[in-house]
Amino acid sequence: xxxxxxxxxxEDHETPSSAELVADDPDDxxxxxxxxxxxxxxxxxxxxxxxxxxxxxxxxxxxxxxCFHYSTEEIKGSDCVDQFRAMQExxxxxxxLYPQEDENEEKSSKDLEATSVEASxxxxxxxxx
Length: 129
Known about the structure:
The protein has 129 residues and is mainly α. It has a domain at 50-98: Helix Hairpins, CATH 1.10.287. Helix content is 39%, strand content 0%. The chain has 4 helices and no strands. It has helices at residues 10-14, 58-70, 81-92, 109-128. The longest helix is centred in the last third of the chain and has 20 residues, at 109-128. The model is unreliable at 105-110 (pLDDT under 50).
């Protein structure tokens, strides 16, 4: 696949490296260009996905997210129920990796603190502009 193993010898390490750092390449699809690449494709390497595109349910996530992204239904994504169900079923098999939040469960005080801190920071940013 995408990985290549290269073995270095002692001799390889005796000479200084001739590697050159290349300036940012705007055409590099793996650079942090956001969720959607300029050509309209999904950037699966975007940090905004929080690693969801990899891991044991990565393929199910990609399938569901792609379906939603490219959906042309009146209610966007309404044609993707099967893909989202498969993703959810996969995630339920790995509760340590994908913690499930119960909608009826009250937020912990830690969550409430974080929310209020974020809200305060947002207000401060608004006020300072």
